[in-house]
Structure formats: C-alpha cells, structure tokens
Amino acid sequence: MFDGFQLDRVTVGEVTLRVRHGGSGPAVVLLHGHPRTHTTWYQVAPALASDFTVVCPDLRGYGQSDKPAADDAHTQYSKRAMAGDVVQLMTSLGHDRFAVVGHDRGSYVAYRTALDHPDRVSKLVVMDGVPVVEALERCTDKFAAMWWHWWFFAQTAKPAERVICADPETWYNAWTSNGPDVLGPENHADFLAAIRNPATVHAMVEDYRAGLGIDRQADEKDRADGRQITCPTMMLWSERDDMEEIYGNPLDVWRPWCPQIVGHGIDSTHHIAENAPLELVRSLRGFLR
C-alpha cells in the first residue's frame, strides 16, 4: 500500500500521530472515520499524489496514534482537540495552507478545523456527515433507530467497550461486510489490529462521548455567534447509505453553515474510499484543483 509514501510518527502537542504522507503539489489531509485507520485511503491517496501532497494520519485515539486519558467532559477527544492535531501536524510537515477531506467521524474533525482555523484551510470536503448539532436536533425515531450506536457508545455507567471487546471481530463485521475482500488485505489487517486493541476501542468510543457533549456545545456557540465556514466546501454522500433517507438533500442541512456549498451523492455504501475509490478520486480532484 501507499507506494512512494513515507510512514512517520509525528508529535503534535500532547499526542503523537501515525501518519503516511507523499506526493507533490498543494497539500491535502485525508481524515478517516470510525472504526477505520488512515489505511482506508489506500486506493485514494496514491491516485491523488500526482497532483497533491497527500497526508493521511490516524486520528488521535484511532489506529496506532496516541490515546490520551480523558476527563469527565471527554475534552481530549473533542473535535476541537483533533482539529488542533491536524493543524499542528500540517505545520510540522511544512504546510501553511491545506485542504481538508474528512469522512464519517473525520468529517466532524474536518469542519471543526475549517471553523477554528480559517486562515489555514484552503478547501473543505465533508463526506457522510452533517454538523453534530444539526444531527442531534433532527433526531427522530428513524434517526435513533438507524444511529442507535451514538447513544450506546455514550454510556459510561455500563460501558460499550465491554460489549465490543468481548468479540470485536463480530461487532465490526470483520469477516463479512468488512472482510479482506472488501477492504483489501493490508487495509483489513490494519483494521483488525485496531479493533482488537481494547485501548483503541475505548478511545474510539470516547470520540462519540465527546460528540454528544462538548462537540455539540462548540457547534451551538458557533451558530449563536454567526460563525460560518468561509472556504470553498463540498459535501459527498453515499447513495446506498442513509443520508438521503434521514435528511433529504444533505446540502440543505449544510447551507446555514456554508452558503456556497456544493456536492453530490456517490453510488456507494458507507465507506466510499474503499467501495467507490475511482469516483471519489474524480470528485476530489475536480474540486481541489
């Protein structure tokens, strides 16, 4: 995987991130979702590397990046903290301005990076996600039924980690819908190593706990203050997932946050980078140039 890319560990404040980077041209950082690692981009990153310098970290808590202990507010796993990691990482690699692409949980980190650091982000792409506060305020019985894991992961009195770690490979469908034939052998091996590590599972759940509290509060304050995303923004969503079923046109949810947003659906199941890499690369290259 990642022919011509360099694999490093880069310290950014309180954590050290595992990061893969390569290519040449304007910088773009690709942020994975749950429960993936940076290797989810193994088909996308090399295809972009002829036009861009591509940076793929494991988010804090995920994969082989550090997993700091969390306080009661789960501050260490807030999207603000993760966005700070992204900015420090790109500074360390010599990139003052860069585009940010995020999928799933990575989309929350991506838009938080654009909101908190508008001077650093040249373009933003969010995939299969809307602002946390918008998702929670639109919570219906349909949303709760489809996204029940948000509430399950948030429990601390009866921690979700105990259930997941009892049989992580079954929980994460590691030999069915997330098998090596779908993820690719090397990407699958990295995914397996992550979900088999109880510390990683705990950190991934902490990400969700932050989402229902401190991340929502950050969104609420931004909205009350009238803050918007000012850089060019694109949203992509999986047409064979549930975004349209829950939100109708997802762009309508995003417009109060970035009025000039563009985007479209892609014929894919949820993990677009693995299921529809060619179409994703075409969409990203056309927007990021």
UniProtKB/TrEMBL annotation:
Gene3D superfamilies: alpha/beta hydrolase. GO terms for molecular function: hydrolase activity. InterPro entries: AB_hydrolase_1, AB_hydrolase_fold. Transmembrane segments: none annotated. SUPFAM superfamilies: alpha/beta-Hydrolases. The keyword Hydrolase applies. Keywords: Hydrolase. It comes from the Bacteria. Residues 26-246 form the AB hydrolase-1 domain. This is Alpha/beta hydrolase.
